[in-house]
Amino acid sequence: MPFSIIIPVYNEEKIIEKNTKKLLEFLNNLKENYEIIIVSNGSADRTIDIGKRLEKKHPKKIKFFHISQRGVGIAFKKAVKNASYDNLISIDMDMAIDLDFIPRCLRLLKSNYSMVIGSKNIGKQRRSFLRKFISNTFIFLVKILLELKFMDYSIGAKGYKKKEVEKYNDFIDDGSSYVVSMAYLIKKRKLKIVEIPTKCFDNRKSKFNLTYEIFYRLRSLLSFWFKVKFLKIIK
């Protein structure tokens, strides 16, 4: 069954070529039809030139897009819109997640799961105490406010059915909180979601401004909670 790999990127000139080559080699060994969709959001370095060169070199396997506005949610929507296949797998360009997540995720999407959540917290991880503390606090708040029991809402290592994501395009904001929205909306429709362990070994500092990300995620979570619990925008 064919699938699309989605990778949002921001100023990744140092790793985009090397890691894309690594990904191509891995995917070719799976013996499945695939495409890689790389979306630069706000990049101001050589990411755009390198991405275009990769697309030209691998026209049947790579699609590259650049949008001037920064935002992983914007990049995700652009990728979904241009995906050729219904099975979508989102990963990060730094590939801190074990690539074995991809075939495991694909098997589950083939088994009619509408969302696959790769979770560092039930797998193995090597991250700073601060990043784990912030992540765990956010997960606790999601559990309390939205009654979701999943353990990882990062954008990497996630699988979706395109047809389900497209139903809720309006709930994908500019940032990274769309993972929570998708999990809630898909679960509310009583579709199948599964969480599986992943291995994550951070090999560099986060590219997110942690202070901004904390307030953004809190604001987005409270806004979404208010909309679904009080305004009843989803029935």
CATH architecture classification name: Alpha-Beta Complex
Rg calculated over all Cα atoms: 17 Å
- List unreliable stretches of 5+ residues: none
Query: What is the assigned CATH homologous superfamily?
Result: Spore Coat Polysaccharide Biosynthesis Protein SpsA, Chain A
Strand order of the largest sheet: 3-2-1-4-6-5-7
Number of helices: 8
Q: Explain this structure to me?
A:
The protein has helices at residues 16-28, 47-57, 72-82, 101-110, 129-146, 162-167, 178-188, 210-229, and strands spanning 3-9, 34-41, 62-67, 87-90, 115-126, 158-161, 193-201. The protein is of the alpha/beta class. The chain has one domain: Spore Coat Polysaccharide Biosynthesis Protein SpsA, Chain A. It has a 7-stranded mixed sheet with strand order 3-2-1-4-6-5-7, sandwiched between helices. β2 (34-41), α2 (47-57) and β3 form a beta-alpha-beta unit. α5 (129-146) runs parallel beside α8 (210-229). The chain starts with a strand and ends in a 6-residue tail after the last helix.
